[in-house]
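Give me structure tokens for this 383-residue protein.
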Amino acid sequence: MAELFSKANEAFVDENYGEAIKLYSQAIEQDAEKTEYFLKRAQTYIKLEEYTNAVTDTEKAVELDPKNSKCFLRKGIALFHLEKFQDAKTAFVEGQQLDSSESSFKTWIRKCEAELDLEQMEESSSQTTGEPVVGVASSSGEVKTTATESAAAPDSTEPSTSTAAKASETIAQAQPPSAPFQKIRHDWYQTETHVVVTIMIKNAKSDQVQVDFTDKTVSVTVKLPSDSDYNLELDLAHSIVPDKSVTKVLGSKIELKLKKVEGIRWSLLEGTDDLPKAAAKSSASKPDEVHKYPSSSQHSKDWDKLARDVDEEEKDSKQEGDAALNQLFQQIYADGTDEVKRAMNKSFVESGGTVLSTNWKEIGDKKTEVKPPDGMEWKTYDK
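Here you go.
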């Protein structure tokens, strides 16, 4: 069971949610009394936007552990996405009563109240006008009701043919064309002081990006060009400092820089991180150790080296002339493939430092000729 659950968590971190659901389900079949199994499967269902299944799992989790505030948090999030805002608020309030220190409940309760106020305003508006209501598609594609004019025949209670046609036309025009689902990838890495989450959305507008940080959660909502919303809910493995966490909206991505409360290495972005803090601090204190942090990417990266390279680049950014040129060559060599490095070494040595080529195919099979600068002559030094 523990092995299945561990493999399911690995699949979740790799964003292989279908496999994670399969493994969590197998773990539940073997032991249906583990609250955490249902909570993690519910979280995976939320990632897959299968909110009804998520509600079912959270209700089972509540039965198993009615004092666990996370059960109510996940239940409320699933209900919120199902637009059952009153039920979601009730779940968040119950969870807040169990754990008042969890600030994310306050954020979600505020979201529910805003949606409920909007619903009440729409209802009051339709009642005040006393006019018939006609369905209009919302940005999410769901048909909602709104007041519109109606021309009825004087001697009939049925709407006229022209009115029905107008209503049908209104719905057809308001309904956005269906677009294929496009999965938006997010990734993460960390330094000693921060966790950086990148969301691969291009050309997002700052005023259409809403990010809420709490001690243990991150909530992101982005209005996409298709007029639909992208939502990302992260249940963090460790605590962050909300006031010192920032959002950057760039042309190629959205970057969330989360300030760590403790300078320890995270082995997981979400869920329960069992890495001992003492071991984590010891590991982080070794300057010569290469840290290849986990992420949803299948390829590991030495993010410590990347951070150091960036720092060095910033220090030397004002160099000019020969120094700037040498820095460029050094950077090309450092970032180059094995062939690029062989080409640079061969061409530089054989030409006496007068030629520097990065094309191995061009200079690999022949000796590189000496090419002194214009106005200068190459001479062999005699000892």
